[in-house]
């Protein structure tokens, strides 16, 4: 059954069930209409981002040509009258401005890049501004911005970059080591970059950075590796275990307590919990290994790992 058929059946059910209730029917029709419009807008924005990805690839060889294309897209967006596209004009304009600012930075036109970043509507472009001010050797301005932004992990990495650009190797190392200690972010690109910088700075004669990391606006760029697929798989593996499948009812749940990205280890800790009454409770803990997806039972009370056969025979 395709999407259109499902929507048609859904509308038919509403018509039958709400025959005598006109206000409810009107509300349902309006709700469906809003949902359909949201899907149209979402598709338009997705198509726009797909085109941006292509332009980003093209800009690697010819950035100035792509800047001209961005200007044309910006003008077309300004006069856009389409019912749906008009609703995301500001978002599109912001994305185009950031893209242009990024390319201007890459080709050394720092003042122009700053102008584009400052003209954006929604986004927080402090890091981009820091990058440009460092290149212009306006370190006081860069430092002033850095001191004003929250102490997030990425910002810590940027601060470390900044310390390198002004020759403060020890301060840079302190910042990089803060990132190194946080294993929960070891799947993020700036964690890996921080480790590389630590290795360089620990050399006898390290080569210090002369720039700060400019975060790309490319839509398909992922700051952190996604773990969604593996998480879904380990939940499904536990759900299919006979001991769990037989008990999986309304008062039961499965959750991931720890993952490799959190604990820096090579397994997922998955917990099954059932509570059918005040007295009767069941709790199973499993370790599922990242590479093989082998499942082992974790005896939490005795802190022992058992194979599934060992666990079943011990019951």
Secondary-structure content class: alpha+beta
N to C succession of SSEs? HHHHHHHHHHHHEHEEEEH
Separation, N- and C-terminal Cα atoms = 45 Å
Low-confidence stretches: 2-21
Task: Tell me the strand order in the biggest sheet.
Answer: 1-2-3-4-5
Write the layout of secondary structure elements.
Elements: H1 3-17, H2 22-59, H3 63-78, H4 89-106, H5 110-118, H6 126-135, H7 139-148, H8 153-165, H9 169-181, H10 189-201, H11 228-239, H12 242-245, E1 252-258, H13 260-263, E2 267-275, E3 281-289, E4 295-299, E5 304-307, H14 308-314
Helix pairs in contact: 2-3, 3-4, 4-5, 5-6, 6-7, 8-9, 9-10
Short synopsis of the structure:
With 315 residues, this protein is α+β, with helices and mostly antiparallel strands. It is built from 14 helices and five strands. Mean pLDDT is 86; it is low at 2-21.
Describe this structure in words.
This protein is of the alpha+beta class and 315 residues long. The chain folds into 3 domains: 1-123, no CATH class; 125-221, no CATH class; 228-314. Helices cover 58% and strands 11% of the residues. The protein has 14 helices and 5 strands. It has a 5-stranded antiparallel beta sheet with strand order 1-2-3-4-5. Helix 5 (110-118) runs antiparallel to helix 6 and helix 6 (126-135) packs antiparallel against helix 7. The chain is flat and about 70 Å long. It starts with a helix and ends with a helix. Residues 2-21 have low confidence and may be disordered.
Name the descriptors.
315 residues; alpha+beta; 3 domains; 14 helices; 5 strands
């Amino acid at each position: 059954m395709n999407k259109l058929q499902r929507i048609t059946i859904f509308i038919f059910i509403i018509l039958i069930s709400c025959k005598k209730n006109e206000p409810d029917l009107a509300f349902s029709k309006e709700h469906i209409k809003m949902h359909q419009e949201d899907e149209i807008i979402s598709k338009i924005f997705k198509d726009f981002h797909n085109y941006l990805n292509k332009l980003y690839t093209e800009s690697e060889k010819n950035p100035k040509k792509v800047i001209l294309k961005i200007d044309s897209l910006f003008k077309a967006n300004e006069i856009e009258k389409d019912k749906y596209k008009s609703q995301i004009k500001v978002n599109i304009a912001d994305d185009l401005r950031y893209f242009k600012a990024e390319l201007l930075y890459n080709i050394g036109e720092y003042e122009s890049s700053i102008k584009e970043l400052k003209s954006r509507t929604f986004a927080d472009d402090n890091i981009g501004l820091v990058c440009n001010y460092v290149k212009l050797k306006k370190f006081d301005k860069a430092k002033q911005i850095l001191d004003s932004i929250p102490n997030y992990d990425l910002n810590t990495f940027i601060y470390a970059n900044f310390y390198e650009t002004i020759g403060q190797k020890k301060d840079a190392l302190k910042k990089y080591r803060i990132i190194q200690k946080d294993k929960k972010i070891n799947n993020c690109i700036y964690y890996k970059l921080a480790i590389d910088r630590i290795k360089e700075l620990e050399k006898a004669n390290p080569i210090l950075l002369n720039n700060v990391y400019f975060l790309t606006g490319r839509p398909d760029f992922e700051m952190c590796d996604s773990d969604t697929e593996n998480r879904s798989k380990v939940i499904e593996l536990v759900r299919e275990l006979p001991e769990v499948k037989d008990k999986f009812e309304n008062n039961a749940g499965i959750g991931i307590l720890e993952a490799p990205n959190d604990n820096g280890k090579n397994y997922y800790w998955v917990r099954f919990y059932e509570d059918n009454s005040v007295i009767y409770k069941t709790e199973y803990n499993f370790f599922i290994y990242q590479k093989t997806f082998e499942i082992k039972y974790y005896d939490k009370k005795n802190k022992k790992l058992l194979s599934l056969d060992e666990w079943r025979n011990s019951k």
